[in-house]
Structures are given as structure tokens and as C-alpha cells.
Specification:
15 helices; mainly alpha; globular
């Protein structure tokens, strides 16, 4: 990937770093399906406003069915499964399970694309990255493994769905990233509306606290609306496998923000985890290894 693409990936990781926290706050008072609907609907409103302000046309009607498929794979299924999982397990374990997304992404891309083949470097890099995430989040989160099996399987199911979404989304490379993002979350909103009406009947729920409303607003506008502009930009230029590396970087950005903004101390496990993730990303990127092999061949 180019320097610009790495910069966008880091920005996306920083934005999504808060998503697990916002989601945990939101599902404390609001059912998961309703949180999903609020998240994608707020994102859709935000992105349609961006389209209007920037004078970018919405995607043509002929593309709507394809974006409905993307909405199911990249929003409806994974958001619902993750939010359900977070009602039963901690955000730390959820983030570790979500970090398996690149594993699924490289396998799906290998099977369904001709130009994103699985290599030893990619697989080793992803596994190093997942190990790094586990080290960052800590042993305490791993102790939850084996309990609440359905919630953990739900988080893994979300990661698998994201893996398919990354490959499926390659077909939208010709569309403007902001239009792709708007089309996806608009379709997600329309799909979730009848589900929420039947399952949650949100009009019968008590009004959530201001803290929860704020978390849902940030989750929808920032962690979904603006985040998906970056997501489709990276997908368009760098491909399916690379865009899903963001799940390895999310815990890193969360911990670094805690250190620099909140003054939290970094421990040995934090540095070890970040080192493993850095090694994993370098292995996936491949450029350092190629330079090393060229140097040795001289």
C-alpha cells in the first residue's frame, strides 16, 4: 500500500477505535437491532447531506440491488451479531474476535478473486496481528473464552461477514466512495426498519439517557458515516485484504489515544502487542521482505 493508503487506514482505525465503546454504552439501554437502525440511519442522513453539499450524484437505481447485498454483508449481519455479542461479553474479547476479520478476508479473497492470492507472508502477518491484538487487550479478556459461546460465535460470524463484504465490495470501485458509503447505509436502514418494528417495537421503549443518545449519535455520524467514506476509498485503491487490516489497528489506536490523551501508562504487554502487530503488517505489506531478499541476492 502507498503512504496515503496507510494514512487513511490509520485514520479509519482511530475513528473505529471508539466504536466498541460507543456500542457497549448504547446496548446497555437500547436493544441491539434498534441500535443498528439508529447507527445506519444517522449515517445515511449525514452522507446524503455530504453528497448534496459536494454536488456528488447518488448511485443510479440499477446499482441499488448490489448495494443491498453489500448492506447485508457489511452492516446488517455484522452489526447485529456484534451488538448481540456485546450484550453478553466484554468489549475486549469482542475486539479480539473481531480482529480475526483479516483471516477471513484473505481466505475469501484468495478463493473468489484472481489478484489477491493468499501467500505465506499474508497468512503469517495476519496471525501475528491477531496475536498482537490479544496481547494488547490482555489475558483477562482471554479468560472469557469458552463462556457465553453463542455470543463469541456471533462475533466470529460478524468477522466472517466482514470478510465476504470486503471482497464483494470490489465491484463498487467505479463509484465515488462517499456515494458508495451513502448507498450502503441507506440500504441498511431500509432493511433494518421492518426488522426493528417487528422485533424491538422501539416506540414502546423508555427514553434512553443523554449519555446513550450521545453514544448512538457518535456511533452513527462519525464511526459509521465518515468512517465508511474512508473504508470505500481504501477498498477502491488498495483492495479487500488491505482494508480489513483496520481491525488489527483499532486496539492500537485506542490504547495510544488513552496514553496520549488520558495519560494512561503503557505496559510491557502493550509494547509487545504493538510490536507483533507492526511485524504482521510489515509481513502483509511485503515491501520490507522484498527489499531484504533483494539485498541478500546482491
Amino acid at each position: 500500500m502507498s503512504g496515503r493508503e496507510w494514512a487513511m487506514l490509520l485514520a479509519l482505525a482511530a475513528i473505529w477505535g471508539g466504536a466498541f465503546f460507543f456500542a457497549k454504552v448504547a446496548v446497555s439501554q437500547v436493544p441491539p437491532f434498534t441500535v443498528v437502525l439508529c447507527r445506519v440511519a444517522l449515517a445515511a442522513l449525514t452522507l446524503h447531506l455530504v453528497l448534496r453539499l459536494r454536488g456528488i450524484p447518488f448511485v443510479p437505481a440499477s446499482r441499488w440491488p448490489a448495494y443491498a447485498g453489500m448492506a447485508v454483508l457489511n452492516n446488517v449481519i455484522p452489526f447485529s451479531l456484534l451488538f448481540y455479542g456485546q450484550t453478553q461479553i466484554g468489549a475486549g474479547l469482542a475486539s479480539i474476535l473481531n480482529a480475526t476479520t483479516p483471516v477471513f478476508a484473505v481466505i475469501v479473497a484468495h478463493v473468489f478473486t484472481p489478484d489477491e492470492r493468499l501467500t505465506g507472508g499474508k497468512l503469517a502477518g495476519v496471525l501475528l496481528g491477531v496475536a498482537g491484538v490479544a496481547a494488547l487487550v490482555g489475558v483477562d479478556a482471554l479468560r472469557e473464552l469458552g463462556a457465553d459461546v453463542w455470543a463469541q460465535l456471533a462475533c466470529l460470524g460478524a468477522a466472517l461477514s466482514y470478510g465476504f463484504a470486503a471482497t464483494y465490495g470490489r465491484r463498487f470501485r467505479g463509484d465515488a466512495p462517499v456515494a458508495s458509503a451513502a448507498a450502503q447505509v441507506t440500504a441498511s436502514s431500509l432493511i433494518m426498519l421492518p426488522i426493528v418494528a417487528l422485533a424491538d417495537q422501539p416506540w414502546t421503549l423508555p427514553l434512553p439517557s443523554a449519555q446513550v443518545i450521545g453514544a448512538i449519535a457518535l456511533l452513527g455520524i462519525v464511526s459509521t458515516g465518515f468512517a465508511y467514506i474512508l473504508f470505500f476509498s481504501i477498498l477502491k485503491s488498495a483492495g479487500a485484504t488491505n482494508v480489513m487490516l483496520v481491525t488489527l489497528l483499532v486496539p492500537v489506536t485506542a490504547i495510544l489515544l488513552g496514553a496520549f490523551v488520558l495519560g494512561e501508562r503503557l505496559g510491557a504487554s502493550d509494547f509487545a502487542g504493538m510490536a507483533l502487530i507492526a511485524l504482521g503488517l510489515a509481513a502483509i505489506d511485503g515491501r520490507i521482505w522484498k527489499r531484504f531478499t533483494r539485498f541478500r541476492s546482491r
